[in-house]
Amino acid sequence: MIAPNYVDLIGAPFEYGGRGPGKFDCYGLVMEMHKRSGLILPDFGFADDKALISAMMGVTMPQWKEVKPRPGAVVLIRIQGHISHVGYMIDQHQMIHTWECSGGVTVIRADRWKQRIVGFYEYVGN
User: CATH topology for 7-123?
Assistant: First the structure.
């Protein structure tokens, strides 16, 4: 898979519950990137509590298959003991993501989060 064009998203502000077009949270950004690839992800809802986000992700894990880092893979990241952050791999090494500390949507090397990465996943549905 080739990552869709994302340049127009760089710098878009972070907002909990943001589903675009102007503001995104981490999952809203992953949804947007998948949409640009022609795949509509379900909106699993919004929460700003890390424990609740982690619980929601745990319930939906059967809908995801673990894969190697590659364009289009979603990277799950543990923050403060909970899986509560996601990014979208744009190539084998870089991801696009956003969170409250990133200053908006940005592209970084995934290995900057190496100690916190839980895995790389592809959506497979029900």
Answer: endopeptidase fold (from Nostoc punctiforme) (3.90.1720)
